[in-house]
Amino acid sequence: MRRWFLLLVLLGLGVGGYFLLRPKRVAQVVEAPEVYTVVRGEVRVTVSGSGSLAPWQTLDVRPEVQGLLRSVVEEGTWVEKGQVLAELDPTSFRQALEEAQADLAKAEAALANTRAQGESALASLKASLKSAEVAYANAQASLSTAQRNLEATRLLYQAGGASQQALLEAEAAYASARRSLENAEVSVRAQQEALALREAQLREDLRIQEAALVQARLAVAEAQSNLNRTRVRAPFSGVVLSVAASPGVQVGPTSTLLTLGDSSRYRLVLEVDETEIAQVKVGLPVRVSLEGLPGQTFQGRVEAISPQGETVNNIPVFKVAVSLAPDPRFRSGMSADGEIVVREAKDVLVIPKRAVERGQGGAYVTRLLPDGSTERVPVTLGLEDNTRVAVLEGLKEGDQVILSRRGATGSNSQQQRPPEPLPLMGPGR
């Protein structure tokens, strides 16, 4: 009897434990569909790359003359075109200029003296020539008179009106007048030759003196230029990227004083994968973000594409040079990412790609109607990026579409599993 009682107690405990520990039915949770309202927006297809920021051009600034460096600007200084970057000791250059100016004054004085002396000598020769010409004219007149007198005396002598002595005297006078004319002619020619020779000599002297004056003026200009070159000026506006020389050292045309970066625009060289480089063209816009200036986007432009690729980490990449407008916050060497906009659609209807079903018949979306029901609508799609797509036909702004749960994660997308029932304890266990 007692044994049966124990069996009944154990049986009761087992039945009670079963009802207490049996799996409970879990109510199935029905999630509401995720809905998206169609709006207008933009869709961009981009090619991404990364690189570092640098001035569009850099220049190693060197002095044009040899000398002792007296001062140089500090690294990081923003300078304007023509601003003094460095200065050499000007003492020796100033002395050279003073000497050249003194030589120029001597050359000017020598030229003036040569001209004055030459003009004085020419004046004297011209006066002598004038006197010789007057003497020649007088000799011509005397010869003409002596010739007329000789002819008249000869006629009288033939007629018996003049003595032989008178004829001889007339002939002697004529011969004397002729010799005087010949001498006067020789004198004129001599004076003319002397004048021509002196004029030629003066022209040569003046040519030499004028050439010396030109050289002296060039020497002054060179000395002045060398003095001016002791002040090294910025060839363009920019920032001093680095300084290579210190005051007190000897520098020359082969010495780099500093490196200047052009601040008129900046360069960003992006590395683009070979699979995407064919989409990149010169002139395309680029959206640039800098790690040093988070949350901001800067506009750039593709300026050049390298014709030959390079292997980086066993991947062929191509260099794409992007130009950026200047910004005082930019610093050379800043890390940057660039998105080259290869295609873009603006002011178009945009929906997530998760809303689209694609099949052999085309693309469809599930539209939510005002009464809560849905309908399957064919759509014509346009440009698409990684997450969104433009709708050209089939929807209008404000329509609501159902989003697929493809790829959804989280607790709501997982089915709840009931706990495993505990095993019943049998007799003797």
TrEMBL record:
Residues 269-313 form the CusB-like beta-barrel domain. Residues 58-249 form the Multidrug resistance protein MdtA-like barrel-sandwich hybrid domain. InterPro entries: Beta-barrel_RND_2 (IPR058792), MdtA-like_BSH (IPR058625), MdtA-like_C (IPR058627), RND_pump_MFP (IPR006143), UPF0194_transport (IPR050465). Keywords: Coiled coil. Residues 347-405 form the Multidrug resistance protein MdtA-like C-terminal permuted SH3 domain. Residues 406-429 are annotated as: Disordered. GO terms for cellular component: cell envelope; membrane. It is found in: Cell envelope. Residues 418-429 have a biased composition (Pro residues). Belongs to the membrane fusion protein (MFP) (TC 8.A.1) family. PANTHER family: EFFLUX SYSTEM COMPONENT YKNX-RELATED. This is Macrolide export protein MacA.
